[in-house]
Specification:
Blueprint (H helix, E strand, L loop, with lengths): L9 H10 L9 H6 L11 H15 L4 H11 L3 E3 L10 E3 L1 H17 L7 H11 L6 H8 L3 H16 E2 L8 E2 L1 H15 L5
Antiparallel strand pairs: 1-2, 3-4
Helix pairs in contact: 1-3, 4-5, 4-9, 5-6, 6-7, 6-8, 7-8
């Protein structure tokens, strides 16, 4: 591999690292000998791709557990195609890594946002929803046995904690956990020269 910078941004590097599959293989030797370079993947397949993904993951190990879990929620796929053929199959299977990250961030939300003592399940569901899980607030209320009004208040608190708040005339804005996690990762990946 050359010394060229492979990613345009920290988000690109993180997206690649979190989505890199160990099932990707380098092109067979005969194909490489017969067909030039093939594609414009910048060499990110096989061992080169695994190495690059590993470098990104190694750099972000310096982040807090909360920030790593937030980045996982942001960049990991929520589900994968499934072709098991069973009657209950929706043709998608859940990503256990994504679900584990949602549980971790939900646990942090219980501690970080006041009034969370017995709201772990509710806050975890709202974290999942914030990061793209397709669930309606009314369904979450029914599933968790909490009033819709409470779920709406909790959803607003979770969004404020993760996204941050905007500045007003009387109050300074604060960056949310999601913004802080990406900024911290950006700093570590920039130090390593992993993006332009």
């Amino acid at each position: 591999m050359s010394d060229e910078v492979l990613f345009k941004s920290a988000a690109d590097a993180l997206r690649f690292a979190f989505n890199y599959s160990h099932q990707q293989y380098d092109r067979p030797l005969m194909n490489r000998m017969m067909g030039g370079e093939g594609g414009s993947g910048k060499g990110l397949s096989g061992q080169d791709g695994a190495g690059q993904a590993g470098m990104v993951h190694r750099r972000i190990q310096g982040l807090s557990n909360l920030h790593r879990a937030v980045l996982a929620l942001r960049f990991l796929p929520r589900s994968f195609p499934c072709a098991c053929g069973s009657a209950c199959c929706s043709r998608r299977r859940r990503s256990f890594d994504w679900e584990e990250a949602a549980s971790a961030v939900g646990a942090y939300a219980v501690e970080a946002i006041p009034g969370g003592g017995n709201r772990y399940r509710l806050r975890t569901e709202l974290v999942r929803r914030f990061y793209g899980a397709d669930e309606k607030l009314a369904a979450i209320a029914e599933e968790t046995g909490v009033s819709l009004r409470t779920v709406e208040r909790e959803a607003s608190a979770i969004a404020g904690w993760l996204r941050g708040t905007k500045a007003t005339k009387t109050k300074a804005g604060t960056p949310g956990v999601d913004v802080l996690a990406l900024a911290a990762a950006e700093e570590l990946l920039a130090e390593a020269g992993l993006f332009e």
